[in-house]
Amino acid sequence: MDLRYLKYVVPNEKYYVPPNEKANETKFILPSLPQHWILKSDEHWTYCLLNNISLPNQGWKIHISSTTNSAQDTLEVVSSLLIKKNIIFKFVANKLELALKNSKYGERGSSGKFITIYPLNESEFIFLIVKLHEILKGLP
Questions:
Q1: Per the CB 3.0–4.6 Å rule, which of 27, 58, 117, 122 could disulfide with 62?
Q2: 3-class SS of residue 47
Q3: What is the spatial distance between Cα 33 and Cα 9, in angstroms, rounded to a whole number?
Q4: Where are the domains of the chain?
Q5: What's this model's pTM, rounded to 2 decimal places?
Q6: Spatial separation of the C-alpha atoms in residues 47 and 58, rounded to whole Å
Q7: Rounded distance between C-alpha atoms, residue 20 and residue 16, angstroms
Q8: Which residues of the chain have pLDDT under 50?
Q9: d(CA 24, CA 105)
Q10: What are 125-132's contacts with CB under 8 Å, separation 24+?
Q11: 44-71 pLDDT, tens per residue?
Q12: SS3 state at 85
């Protein structure tokens, strides 16, 4: 199978659908960001960055997985914590991309990942792991 066709195949659609059209219809919505945040997007990810914070050369990453049906709820819960604590993160741009990442044909490097969080140090990492477990318990 030529995997390039996957972006055009949409369940319950009779014909191929242009991927940009379907992607725009299923974009994830982030609560409004305070002014000191920067929002950048590409075809796959939406990046939530801060002007005054640069990431270390090495460090920790936390990956959050989600089903496509619960992804918007997961994004709202996680992003509100991260924005409040000024922690840089990125999330999959839309439901179509998330479905592709979660499919059996998803690339290994991004498969199953919905949100990636970049703690600045080990103590922030430990705080986040504990807090995320607490706030995400009820979500698939």
A1: 117
A2: strand
A3: 33
A4: 3-136
A5: 0.83
A6: 19
A7: 12
A8: none
A9: 22
A10: 125/60, 125/62, 128/62, 128/81, 128/87, 129/62, 131/81, 132/62, 132/64, 132/78, 132/81
A11: 899 999 988 888 899 999 999 999 999 9
A12: coil
